[in-house]
Design a protein that fits this description.
single chain, alpha/beta, binds nicotinamide 8-bromo-adenine dinucleotide phosphate, seven-stranded mixed sheet, about 475 residues
């Protein structure tokens, strides 16, 4: 009998091609297919020596190459192309077969697709894959959803190709149906927040201290030796140290300051609004990118008055870089606390039983937000007494206790100097909001009752109440 493949990949653009190579390099015979066959042939010609690839020109040939139960990975553009490919292949599969969607699908689409395929006996495994092009080849962080049965059949192969940290694969079953894509979505939301916070730290050092990008690169390199050690800090130092070949200026000074967004950050915030979870750090990061993109509005605002104080000097300047490191660390903790809260809320809403400790564990390597402190997050959720919030876990409570004076100074200084720090400031406000015994929400309830008879609850009695604001202001139980 002709050789069959343990797994197949259809969609051989950058991600699919590298994922297929990763399977092959780990000794798995991999069937490969792409709508445009030239890409399939190119892959085999160029990288055929890395392992065993079984190329297919048609969908039928591709399915015939897979050993049952078939494991078919789709790596095509998210949205309509993914639906088209699922429809094409589902018609050729049998009950018990698995379709893995490794694209960046919205978890609601994954839930819809999972139900439709389950009715036909096919396992649909929405799988978040992070790490970009390089991760797909060398070891990504993999977040599979879908049924436990499908994970039993797929997990070992996915764990094989995933990044490893201390020998532990950065791949674990997140939960049923859309859990994997939900976790990936929040991962990307945290990534937005982390990048924004790092960008604010750079902006502060540049504008408050007048440091040049190449000097700031050195600061980031130093930070990367400590508790902030992470992929994003590491690449930030590289980008800041890079000089533009054309004019000899710092690269960052010749790039247009308009950040793009592909949508997963926006999805995170939209979903958080639906779930009622305050992910203010992620939201500010998305909004900061939107603001950066409004070129005409920004041009029109150039004459608006700012503060008189321009840069720091004396003692303020001497301690500022260290203060910014502390503010960055504290704000980053808040961004993760908010993201984990969203994962917990999604898990409760959709009955996924996602374990935040496992999520932290598989984010330690392979993915864009990989960082030293994910170990601490994992430990926090492994403890017998699970924290209500990451912020209330002992390690992080103490970390913020140590950083908060500097964090407050940085936010105050930024306001004084007119340097925008939506990420740092939102994180600090969230922290202060969470720990406040009383919030002005009580006044908002009064306002709502005044104009809309929305009622309110009292601190000393059960049940809703309304005050007759337009009459004699007597209070009634409702
Ligand atoms: P793209 O998102 O650029 O998609 C290109 C692939 O989709 C090609 O193989 C193309 O085939 C195929 N395709 C399209 Br477009 N429409 C199709 C259709 N109607 N039927 C069949 N195939 C179709 O590729 P990518 O950047 O490799 O990303 C793949 C997935 O992984 C996406 O969902 C992406 O969001 C996700 N992702 C990407 C990254 C990253 O860093 N790039 C990271 C994590 C996740 P063709 O060759 O015939 O045009």
């Amino acid at each position: 009998m002709a050789e069959r493949a343990r797994i197949g990949v259809t969609g051989l653009a950058v991600m699919g091609r590298n994922l297929a190579r990763n399977f092959a390099r780990h000794g798995h015979t991999v069937a490969v297919h792409n709508r445009t066959s030239a890409k399939t042939r190119a892959l085999v010609e160029e990288f055929g020596g890395e392992g065993t690839f079984l190329p297919a020109d048609t969908a039928e040939e591709f399915v015939a190459l897979l050993e049952p139960p078939r494991r078919l990975v789709i790596m095509v553009k998210a949205g309509a192309p993914t639906d088209a490919v699922i429809d094409e292949f589902a018609a050729l599969l049998e009950p018990g077969d698995m379709i893995v969607d490794g694209g960046n699908a919205h978890f609601a689409d994954t839930r819809r697709r999972e139900v439709a395929l389950r009715e036909r006996g096919i396992h649909f495994v929405g799988t978040g894959i992070s790490g970009g092009e390089e991760g797909a080849l060398l070891g990504p962080s993999i977040m599979p959803g879908g049924s436990p049965e499908s994970y039993a059949a797929l997990g070992p192969i996915l764990e094989d190709i995933a990044a490893k940290v201390d020998g532990v694969p950065c791949c674990a079953h997140m939960g049923p149906d859309g859990a994997g894509h939900f976790v990936k979505m929040v991962h990307n939301g945290i990534e937005y927040a982390d990048m924004q916070l790092i960008a604010e730290a750079y902006d502060l050092l540049n504008r408050a201290l007048g440091m040049q990008p190449v000097q700031i690169a050195e600061v980031f390199k130093t930070w990367n030796l400590g508790r902030l050690e992470s992929y994003l800090i590491e690449i930030t130092a590289e980008v800041l140290a890079h000089t533009d070949a054309a004019g000899g200026k710092a690269f960052v000074d010749v790039v247009q300051d308009r950040a793009e967004q592909k949508g997963t950050g926006r999805w995170t915030v939209q979903t958080a609004l639906d779930l009622g979870v305050p992910v203010s750090g992620i939201a500010e990061a998305v909004f900061a990118r939107s603001l950066s993109g409004h070129a005409e509005l920004r041009a029109a605002a150039q004459g608006l008055p700012g503060p008189t104080r321009g840069t720091l000097d004396g003692d303020d300047a001497d301690r500022f870089a260290d203060d910014v490191e502390q503010a960055l660390y504290a704000s980053k903790i808040v961004a993760y606390a908010q993201g984990i809260h969203q994962i917990q809320a999604g898990s409760a809403e959709y009955d996924w039983s996602i374990d935040p400790g496992t999520v932290a564990e598989i984010w330690r390597g392979g993915c864009i937000i990989r960082a030293r402190f994910l170990d601490r997050i994992r430990e926090a959720y492994e403890a017998e007494q699970k924290p209500d919030s990451l912020l209330t876990a002992d390690y992080f409570r103490n970390a913020i206790a140590g950083a908060q004076d500097a964090w407050r100074r940085v936010v105050a200084t930024a306001a004084e100097l007119g340097v925008p720090t939506p990420g740092f400031a939102a994180a600090l406000s969230y922290y202060d909001g969470l720990r406040s015994p009383r919030l002005p929400a009580a006044l908002i309830q009064g306002q709502r009752d005044f104009f809309g008879a929305h009622t309110y609850r009292r601190v000393d009695r059960e049940g809703p109440f309304h005050t007759d604001w337009s009459g004699d202001r007597t209070e009634h139980a409702v």
